[in-house]
Amino acid sequence: MVSATPFATHPVVDILRFNTCGSVDDGKSTLIGRLLYDSKSLMEDQIEALERSADITGGGQINLANLTDGLRAEREQGITIDVAYRYFATPRRKFIIADTPGHVQYTRNMVTGASAANLSIVLVDARAGIIEQSRRHTCIASLLRIPHLVVAINKMDLVGWSEARFQEIRAQFEEFLPRLDIKDVKFIPISALNGDNVVEPSKHTPWHPGPTLLSHLETVHIASDWNLNGFRLPVQWVNRPNCPTNSRLHDFRGFSGQIAGGIIRVGQKVIALPAGMTSTVKEIWTLDGSVQEAFCPQSITLVLDHDIDISRGSMIIGLDNLPGANVNLQAKVCWMHPRPLQRGKKYWLKHTSNMVQAVVTEIEHRIDMATLEPQAAPSELALNDIGEIQIRTAKPLVYDGYATNRLTGSFILIEQGTNATVAAGMLMPPHEIVKPENGDYVI
Amino acid sequence: MSNYHLDHLQHLETEAIHVMREVAGEFERPALLFSGGKDSICLLRLAEKAFRPSDLPMPLLNVDTGHHFPELNDFRDRRAVQLGAKLIIRKVEDAIAKGIAVPATGEVGRNKLQIPTLLAAIEEFRFDCCIGGARRDEEKARAKERFFSFRDSFGQWDPKNQRPEIWNLYNARINPGENMRVFPLSNWTEMDVWEYIQREKLEVPTIYFSHRRKCVRRVGQWLPVTDIIPPKPNEEVRELVVRVRTIGDIISTGMIESPAKSVEDIITEIAAARVTERGSRADDKTSEAAMEDRKKAGYF
User: Fold this and answer.
1) Distance between CA B136 and CA A97 in Å, rounded?
2) Is the pLDDT of residue B150 over 90?
3) Chain A residues inside the 8 Å CB shell of B275
């Protein structure tokens, strides 16, 4: 249950990141407003501001959507045009909400909001049932490998709280679920407008055994999303104090980055790529003193035993669970720009801390959102299309399949000239992994 | 460390350090905006965590409105010396004298005049990136802004045309004359900031703690008595036990009555608070879209 104070004063153990998606008018912003309102996470001045705008525009009724629709155009048009982030806490957890819009032209924002999520809420209007948008959002959640999904069947009050309707929609949904990579799905009948089954259980749904949405969010098991197998440190910055007056600092040469996979210990052997040289971890430096061990996703600075050519974009890896390394890559992409993906065009590809030039050599297929079936050999991928492509990079990429590691298996494409981010990419598992050659690991 | 689990502050910390190192790796001439306020105090600690034992690879920049609390400026200067960091200060007064910033008729506040002053500093030092301590939980327009917030050659934010930000892959590419504002604390709440200050035992300016101060009641707030806007004849000056919750210009920062004498007291107070932090900032009350409008004009 929710306490009267929005923040727990005892230590909060973890953070759940979730996003909401659904079509226009499915009530996403209203749902978030309801979660904040009913969990007493709203402050008096926010409620006052809501009431003020209600007097002007809403004929006296508070519009919970005004809480998240922060931009002028959104209030004018009554729609959500960008991802809005909200924060609240209950005694059990801290929550980061990404409210992602349902308008088809803003699907790229859904990808933005959902990419880091532990959980996605797909809202479905009980009157309309499953529509193409619901499929698209679920497909994106599956593609991004968001571990948990909640299908919130909203506006149940408008279908008379009919269990039959709820089961019918659930069946529609479960029909296309086997084609996706989502393991944990929860169906909850709600009315965001009236607050049924959002924070408080509804008296209209004796047939629903629970939980309410909030109690599910508070208790869903988010076993570490982070990959602890196979050490990966993409080097972001080479740490060289160059301090002539301090001999220890003068020789200090550390490699700073956020661990993208696995665990590292002092004395452990590592390989630096693309140099291909092996070395040993001499020190794990942090501001709070050296540590013996560090793990994903900590940010650290590694000092190695040997002088190796390592710079930003290099990857330091462990000797077990070796990654792939190749210039030819296969990936699923979500296209996010009005200018379609063109075969043969050069883009910048950003992968971990590495930036390389890349060219799309083949568009293998495009997923038909109505059927979720791949359509072979399309001529292009347009805005909001999801498909599979082949890419060739100017330099080999050290990577993992996205299914194995979200951080070393993902990339973005950037259009040269405009610098627009045009695609989110998820790499397929590598065909070839890094191999030792005469003691070194040449790629 | 033994169970390979990070708590919420450690998660926010590693995310912010990653963002800062991306800035150091991607930009030629970054700067870190440091006012001496609680958010930028956290930023500085994160910068130390990101870059030590090296020197900070960027100078600190502060736009001094001339209406700052003196305690804040003292703290700012002292902290820069402690860190061995280069501190650049550009004053709104100088910008007004040079005609870069022009006050509207009767405009006393310096909030808007910070914008041209900041943009001129960016141009003067050719900064391609400014790290700021803004948080998404502060305000509705900020809730929509990316970690890496692209600004065109006029310094403008275009909320409808933001670059998608996916996973932790930040697109930092800009063309000459364009600029990036980067907000490592995007996902932090006011509570997180104070809990971090407590965990890291960070010093904060004394005005955050309860003290006696002469105040006048204006537009529903207790404003400190200053020479800039002296009390009007009909206004009653009262000496109260107050502190600041958020710091803006001295003329628009509401003081809250509070007995909080320590970081622990402040955390307890915020936990029970029923108004938001920016509820005490007159500059945000101008209109529903006050922050959005300022950001579009180049505000950080």
Assistant:
1) 11
2) yes
3) 43-45
Distance CA B115, CA B293 (A): 12
Please answer yes or no on whether B17 and A258 come within 8 Å at the CB atom. yes
Mutate to test the interface with A, among B166, B173, B277, B292 (most CBs of A within 10 A): B166
Percent of chain A scored above 70 by pLDDT? 85
Write down the domain spans for chain A.
Answer: 15-219, 232-318, 324-427
Angle, in degrees to the nearest 10, between helices B190-199 and B8-26: 90
Mean pLDDT score, A50-74:
59
Q: At the top level of CATH, which class does the domain B8-196+288-296 belong to?
A: alpha beta
Q: In whole angstroms, what is the distance from residue A134 CA to residue B197 CA?
A: 43
Q: Do the domains A324-427 and A15-219 match in fold? A: no
Neighbours of A408 (CB within 10 A): 26
pLDDT of residue A9: 44
Is the Cβ–Cβ distance between B120 and A45 less than 8 Å? no
- Which CA distances in Å does B185 have to A111, B14, B38, B143, B267? 21, 11, 12, 12, 18
Q: A410: which residues sit within 8 A by CB, 6+ positions away?
A: A115, A351, A402, A424, A425, A426, A427, B166, B167, B169
pLDDT tens-digit readout, A167-219: 999 999 998 888 888 889 999 999 998 899 999 999 999 999 989 999 999 99
Closest CA to A303 of A277, A319, A286, A281: A281
The class that CATH gives domain A232-318 is mainly beta
Task: Name the closest residue on chain B to residue A227, using Cα atoms.
Answer: B4
Answer whether A207's CB lies under 8 Å from A183's CB. Answer: no
3.90.25.10, 2.40.30.10, 3.40.640.10, 1.10.3660.10: CATH of A324-427:
2.40.30.10
Confidence at A231, pLDDT banded by 50, 70, 90:
very high
Task: Please tell me whether the peptide bond between B231 and the residue prior to it is cis, using omega within 30 degrees of 0.
Answer: no
ipTM given for this complex: 0.91
Q: Which amino acid is at B142?
A: R
The per-residue pLDDT for range A128-152, each reduced to its tens digit, is 999 888 888 888 889 899 989 999 9
**In this structure, are strands A254-258 and A119-125 parallel, antiparallel, or unpaired?**
unpaired
How many A/B residue pairs have CB atoms within 8 Å? 186
Beta carbons of B5 and A353 less than 8 Å apart: no
Task: Out of A13, A84, A406, name the one closest to residue B143 (CB).
Answer: A84
* Tokens encoding B229: 């806007």
Return all residues near A159 (Cβ < 8 A) that are at least 6 apart.
A126, A127, A165
Cα–Cα distance measured from residue B86 to residue A208, given in angstroms and rounded to the nearest whole number: 62
Which tokens sit at A10? Answer: 């005892």
Q: Which residue has the tokens 């579009």?
A: B296
Q: Give the one of A43, A312, A411 whose C-beta lies nearest to B279's C-beta.
A: A43
Q: How far apart are the first and last CA of chain B?
A: 37
Yes or no: domain A15-219 corresponds to CATH 3.40.50.300: yes
Sequence ranges of chain B with CATH classification 3.40.50.620: 8-196+288-296
B104-140 pLDDT, tens per residue? 888 877 888 899 999 999 999 999 999 999 999 887 7
Q: In what order do the strands lie in the sheet with A237-239?
A: A232-234, A315-318, A269-273, A277-285, A299-304, A254-258, A237-239
User: pLDDT (tens digit, 9 = 90+) per residue, A350-393?
Assistant: 999 999 999 999 999 998 877 778 888 788 999 888 899 999 99
Q: What are phi and psi of A159, to 5 degrees?
A: -115, 25
